[in-house]
Amino acid sequence: MAHFTKATSLHDWLNQRMGIDTVRRVMATEYWIPKNINFLWAMGMVLAITFAMLLVSGIFLLMYYQPNVDLAFDSVNYTIMQEVGFGWLWRHIHGVAASVVFLIIYIHMFTGIYYGSYKQGREMIWISGMLLFVAFSAEAFSGYMLPWGQMSYWAGMVITNLFSGGSLHADGLVEWIRGDYVPAQAFLNRFFMLHVLLIPLAILGLIGLHFGALRIPHVNNQDGEEIDFEAEAAKYKAGDKKGSKVIAFVNDFMSKDMMVVGIYLIFFFYLVFYHYDFAMDPVNFDPANGLKTPAHIYPEWYFLWSYEILRPFSTDVGLIAFAFAQVIFVLLPFLDRSPNTIPASRRGLFKYWFWAMLIDMIILTAMGKVPPSGIFSTIGLYAALTFIGLWIALPFITKMEKKA
Amino acid sequence: MKNSSRRGFMGKAFGAVAGVGAVASLYAMKRSWDPLPSVKAAGFTTLDMSAYKENELVTEKWRGKPIFVLKQTADMVAKAKKNPKDMDRLIKIGDAHFMVCVGLCTHLGCIPGYRPETEDFLCACHGGMYDFTAEVTKAPPPRGLDIPPFKIDGNKLVLGEEGPEYKKMLEAGTTLKV
Predict the structure, then answer these.
(1) How many folded domains does chain A comprise?
(2) pTM greater than the 0.80 cutoff
(3) Which end of chain A is more exposed for a tag (fewer CB within 10 A), N or C?
(4) Interface with chain A: mutation pick from B104, B125, B136, B175, highest number of A CBs within 10 Å
(5) What superfamily would CATH give domain B39-172?
(6) Interface contact B111, partner A, CB < 8 A
């Protein structure tokens, strides 16, 4: 049996039993972050804080929400919004955070793409990150069902119909997913379960995986420089903090991180208090009605780009294009054939690829919002083809890239 | 040999028990997600076909889905006769012709709107169009609106039961099974 001595303090008592000093060292004070980074490296912490706010606001919403097709709409729009003290606050935090979290995810993703933070040992960080993106998308969709308004119902109808696989006519699969011929009680109940339990559990696990994947390759830096973390850490610990290329996660990096988080939170609560309406579709303030489609169905802004890739084509081609768009980002580390881990600006053709991809996704997002007719239809079609073309071109243009 | 050792045997035996258990629980989970018997049983709707007016779209409800009923005008029937694909889709009850179909776009399930002046359907979601027999005229929908299983019973139409007229439509490929 391990040997225990009489504790001199609560800290010592815990340390003997749990090794809290070791945990603190490994997780915080001796976890090394490069100095050569900028504010974009704070997005991970911004995401963690946003997720925490979703969790806390969700807990309070959960206490009054009723997962029942007859009660759900009023439990949100009447009970939570009007009766529960500060219920509006939790709902607006939850709605705004659900939207803003995707903005930060996209910034986080494109930061990684720009600086090449998915290559040379960092592949698992990228893959676990993309799995998180999928889990967050499922979480956002299942949560969108819960107020049981017109947009909830019809988004549920359209998205579950995707599983019929176009000409495969897997209607049995669609009915199995719904538990009914159309979205109804069984559907609402199971998506409620997914939203409050199964998907959040998966997200927590994936966050652990994402952090774990970061541990050995470490965070990338602004120049993609390969840093000898052990040597630099030794310098830091020997007192040469100025000469060392790294700083400690806590307190050095965290204090800067929290500065960015602070600025973000001011922006975030400005939205929560004064502009929450951008995250609340007016159509969803009509109760669900299975016999009336809203004039114009569109997803939340963060799904518009992939929706627009589905839309200009016939059903089967659209579904294939949509499936392609959903999975292709995961393969980025393997489609980028260049050995260089440097910012896109120093990578020849990849520089143009990066900006073309970013602009194309913004165009797809804009076209997904407008009605599918006339010139918008045409622009959407070409933007969708450009998206696919860029991914097909990626292995070739990166293969041609010279070793920097 | 390691594989034939007692430890190896125990490993395989445990693997077999765990495998059977895993398959069995997956089956139970799959079944728990199936539509309930009560949901499946509530699947019949009877329509009185003498109550409809020509060129006036009425939306009925069957299995939670909207059902379009459109009594055809003489003009429509004349137009449909020129296009056998259209004519096949109509249901004849007495002397009247009816278009009866599930009012969900075959693209992704939105409800198309009927425009009596142009005698056609437009789906606002992705711009699909159908004519007055709900045959598709503009993509993305891959086919005309589906016709629900029906049985003609005098002046009445029972949705959810498969009559001989419906079976003929299925065989001819006029509609898919819904």
Answers:
(1) 2
(2) yes
(3) N
(4) B125
(5) Rieske [2Fe-2S] iron-sulphur domain (2.102.10.10)
(6) yes
Q: Which of A230, A265, A297 is the last residue of a domain?
A: A297
Closest CA to B100 of B140, B149, B51: B149
Asked if the Cβ–Cβ distance from B127 to A373 is below 8 Å, we say yes
Residue A18 lies in a domain: no
In a domain, A17, yes or no: no
A176 touches chain B (CB under 8 A): yes
The answer, for A151 touching chain B at a CB cutoff of 8 Å, is no
Domain ranges of chain B: 6-34, 39-172
Residue where a domain terminates, one of A272, A297, A322: A297
pLDDT digits (tens, 9 = 90+) for B25-60: 999 999 999 999 888 877 788 888 888 888 888 888
pLDDT tens for residues A10-34? 999 999 999 999 999 999 999 999 9
- Does A240 share its domain with A128? yes
Shared-domain flag, residues A153 and A243: yes
Q: B125 to chain A: which residues are within 8 Å by CB?
A: 158, 293, 296-297
Task: List residues bridging with B129 in a β-sheet.
Answer: B122, B138
By three-state DSSP, how is residue B113 classified? Answer: strand
